[in-house]
Amino acid sequence: MDTVAFRQMKDGTQADYELLDRVERQYFVELPDRILDALRQLDTSLGGYQVTRLEHSLQTATRAEDDGADEDMIFGALLHDLGDVLAPANHSQYAACIIRPYVREQVTWIVEHHGLFQMYYYAHHLGGNREAREAYRSHKWFADCEHFCERWDQAAFDPDYATRPLEHFEPLVREIFARKAFDPEILQPSTRSL
Hints:
Helix content: 40-55%
Largest sheet: none
CATH class: Mainly Alpha
Number of strands: 0
CATH superfamily: Hypothetical protein af1432
Shape: globular
Number of domains: 1
Distance between the termini: 48 Å
Strand content: under 5%
CATH architecture: Orthogonal Bundle
Order of helices and strands: HHHHHHHHH
């Protein structure tokens, strides 16, 4: 494999950076494969539930699709817990960072805050504040995040639910990651409600 000549970025030449640009563009093309592999890793991650983290993610996306959510929201539902393996303390923010360049701001905000909103269902059992999400009550997407959690996320632990397989969602993953990163037409804030 070709490599750059420099040992410090400030010493790089145009040829060095053109090489890196070619390598990076190919790496971007392979992003959907890495994301799909990361989703598959959820199948053997955190236990204790009646479904694996992968099954939970697939079920969340299936529920969103069954409710008529659009592609961006289904994609967000599928990837919302992607951070469970590497960032269990801030999995929501981790997943939001991954999808941020490719979906509208509303979806990113919901994914980023779903962990806090989910605490409503369990924090009081562990001595925590189940009402912590109230700090965001006046936010324009509060109700959407509440809906995401109530209808799709917290309900997606049912081993008997007719959950679609990862192969069903693979074309969507490939389509969304094929978008131009940070395209202003896609990232624009939405007034769409769930």
